[in-house]
């Protein structure tokens, strides 16, 4: 979780619900149905402590699973686990444009 936040949750709780408990915002539009793909997180340690990806999650994520990506609405906590919440792509694009503008203003 961002800023090293943690939450203790019951086994079987989704990563999305665990993040809410820790007051970490993970964007989602579909209400946890794995249809919007907005709740991607990166599981550390090969996903140790998380449920195995189901057929729906494997189908939706495809090759991203090999890079450690999981859907927070589908991945269930089975033990101690660590996940990272990637930066929102829109925020990343805005940050890059602002940094570029600052560099141009210096010259």
Kindly report the CATH topology. Answer: Ubiquitin-like (UB roll)
Using the alpha-carbon principal axes, give the shape: globular
Helix count?
3
* Residue-averaged pLDDT: 89
Number of DSSP strand runs: 3
Helical content band: 25-40%
Give the name of the CATH superfamily.
Beta-grasp domain
Percent of sequence in beta strands: 5-15%
- Any low-confidence stretches, pLDDT <50, length ≥5? none
Q: CA-to-CA gap between the ends?
A: 38 Å
User: Largest beta sheet, briefly?
Assistant: 3 strands, antiparallel
Count of spatially separate domains:
1
Name given to the CATH architecture: Roll
The CATH class name reads Alpha Beta
- List the strand order in the largest sheet: 2-1-3
Global Rg: 16 Å
Structural class: alpha+beta
InterPro entries: 2Fe-2S_ferredoxin-like_sf (IPR036010), 2Fe-2S_ferredoxin-type (IPR001041), Beta-grasp_dom_sf (IPR012675)
Protein name: Ferredoxin
Organism: Paenibacillus ginsengarvi
Domain 2Fe-2S ferredoxin-type: 1-89
């Amino acid at each position: 979780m961002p800023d090293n936040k943690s939450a203790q949750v019951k086994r079987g709780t989704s990563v999305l619900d665990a993040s809410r408990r820790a007051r970490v915002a993970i964007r989602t539009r579909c209400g946890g149905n794995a249809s919007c793909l907005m709740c991607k997180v990166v599981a550390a340690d090969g996903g140790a402590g998380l449920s195995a990806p189901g057929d729906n999650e494997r189908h939706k994520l495809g090759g991203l699973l090999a890079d450690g990506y999981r859907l927070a609405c589908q991945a269930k906590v089975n033990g101690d686990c660590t996940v990272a919440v990637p930066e929102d792509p829109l925020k990343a694009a805005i940050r890059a444009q602002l940094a570029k503008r600052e560099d141009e203003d210096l010259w």
